[in-house]
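Input/output pair, single chain:
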Amino acid sequence: MNPVSNIWNHPKTSAAGLLIAVATIAGVLSQQGVTLGTAGAGTVVSLVCAIATALLGLLARDPAGQPSSAGSTAKLSAWALIALLLPLPFVSGCSGVTVAQDIVNWTPALQSAVAAVDSTAALLAPQDAPIFTAATIGFDAASNLLTAQAKAYLANPTASALSVMQTQIVAFQQQVNAALLQAAKIVDPASQQHAMAAIQAVATIASAILALVQSISSKAQVAQMAAQSTIKLAAVRPYLDGSQAARIVAGHYSEPIELARAQLARAEYTQAQAGF
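Output:
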């Protein structure tokens, strides 16, 4: 097939291929310490990587006004596969500064999710509210501390600041995992549904931040973090709602739900492989 006519007849696919190549090369250059100069607070390489990834996300959207079809579903599935091959948000950052900003960008959603947890007890049956409150009592302090540490790391991304954040995100994730296991013991179906949904929102964001921190940590640091994780992902996985998590991630990054599902799957696999 004539490559020129192929590009002309399939512009979207060709553009996607070009963006994949750009993002992949930029990711490799960033890992090798190649910057090509600075761009604001980051580097030229990280900027190119971020732009390519953002444009790829826009291409993943179906054209407005066109009805859904088996073909469009297949295309979105293909984008989900691409998501597994690219350095995407909260799975692997293009640079430390980019990741630090992404962590800070998650903090308003985290604070909102924790605030929702605080108001959920009123929706539960009287006998279930104390169980839920006891399970989630430390969320406010832990999330506020993590938020402050994320902002401090963005302002001064040093090894010591990263170490503090590594310890705190694992501690917070463990609190959330323990709360999920406690909420699973609630017998009343309506109470359990409210409790699990509220905690899962926090769990999704905590997992996203953990994945971001993991992406800028060395293998030794990740191993140390995993060693501090006593309640493993496998223990809470049966209680997690993948659809709810995908909606949270898709809404945060303004991306297709299928792309968010792929990101979550990759993050979960990476964390499980690391021992979390």
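Confidence is low (pLDDT under 50) at residues 61-77, 79-87. DSSP finds 13 helices and two strands in the chain.
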